[in-house]
Amino acid sequence: MHAGHKALAAALILLNAFAAPADAHARVPAQEPAAQTDPPRRPQGPAAGPIIKLPRSESLGDERPTQQPAASRDERPAEPRRWEYCSIGGFVFRQSGFGSSSSRVASAVIRYFGGDTETVEGPSGFEDDALAVAFAKLGEEGWELAGTRTDFHLSDGDGKATTVYFFKRPKRRE
User: Fold this and answer.
1) Whole-number Å distance between alpha carbons of 106 and 128
2) Containing structural domain, residue 113
3) Structurally, how many domains does the chain consist of?
4) What is the pTM of this model?
5) For residue 158, is it within any domain?
6) Is residue 89 within a helix (H) or strand (E), and if so which, with residue range?
7) How far is Cα 148 from Cα 157, in angstroms, rounded to an integer?
8) 3-state DSSP call for residue 172?
9) Is residue 68 part of a domain?
10) Of all helices (H) and strands (E), which one includes residue 134?
């Protein structure tokens, strides 16, 4: 037993000794407990809070809500939103000038899922810069990133990962 447990046990023994009646023979026989009823249960859930009654607006008076005209009930529900999609999935590199000391420039390839493609050139030869410019361009045009796919190509202990970025935007009415 730990020292803390011993101290607690000693305190409980002393407490019981002082709580015992002085005359053990004068004890009153224990009464049987009365049949206990469960306390009323309080409702639970979203409607469990107090009911709040708001005063009626004077501007409404005794008006009752009107039914919708038959014409609006017969209208067709709105068409589901249609989307158009595009992806960025590759890069094209070109030399910025002639000669062996000229730098290369990276361009991200945007493929629109209608058949068109477009290249967006970055400010440097790095793919990340071209990708950032392409993301900014598509964001300005209302496209939002919808998902990504990363492919891993492994061969002889070497590997390369490629990521395709998918975008969507609400289709424009024609």
Assistant:
1) 9
2) 83-170
3) 1
4) 0.52
5) yes
6) strand 83-95
7) 25
8) coil
9) no
10) helix 127-140
